[in-house]
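[STRUCTURE TOKENS]
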Amino acid sequence: MVDLILNINKEKSISSFDVIRFLRRKTGERRMGFQGTLDVFAEGVLPVFTGSYTKIIPYIYSGVKDYLFEIQLGLKTDTLDITGNITEKKDFPKNLQKEELEILIRKNFTDGYIQRVPEYSAVKINGAVAYKLARKGISQDMPSKEVKIFDVKILSSDGGIVTGKISVSSGFYVRQFANDLGESLKTYAIVTKLQRTKSGDFSIEESIKMDEADEKRAVNLKKLLEKRMKIIYMNEEMTKDLRNGKEIPNTSNIQGLCVAFDSDERDCIILSGEGEALKVKRIIK
């Protein structure tokens, strides 16, 4: 089994699952997953986990994601991005200033922004993947949820092309934001370019290309986890007890999740501090 954490810089024009297929061939490891799907037309940070490390995905921080975007005003497509079929065209406000757009976004989208999940998304509706239904022309009543914009900066606004950078919560759809921004401007809007520059603790500066993926370029598990969780070390007896599902004393009075390693950092177990005991949440390896 090949246990790796890889900060992949996904290229444009391939899907997140294409990345997985490539890495399966390259590493020989079948057990693989990623955190946060990137659309085919998008590029940037895609954290990939292989082997035993797929079990760590639910415990990896993914609360903030940063994007660079380009939005075209005046167009509407079925996918809300440049890859879709154009369904509508409309005039758009001319001479929009960057400052005007930032004020508009902060007024309409930064407090209590309820965002509809796009029909072209990987969300399941009654057991079926939404985008597969959409491709068949089957319209669905898509769910909505509150998302957050932590920061936004408009970099340019010229001739209906708006570029900027945005920091958002997990589950935020930049395509839907573009559509909603267009509506607030009484026009249409689609995303034409999108790059994810940060996903939780994974950044574009530290990312690698798919063909560079190997053990030497992998993210260190301990260094990643210790950014968000307390690290403790297990002796042989503690390791045996935890692997048998037993509790161990919470001598450090840890509240919430922590991660336990053996002295060689080969064994890794996620624990939960509950009162005077540390209980096993997940045995990673």
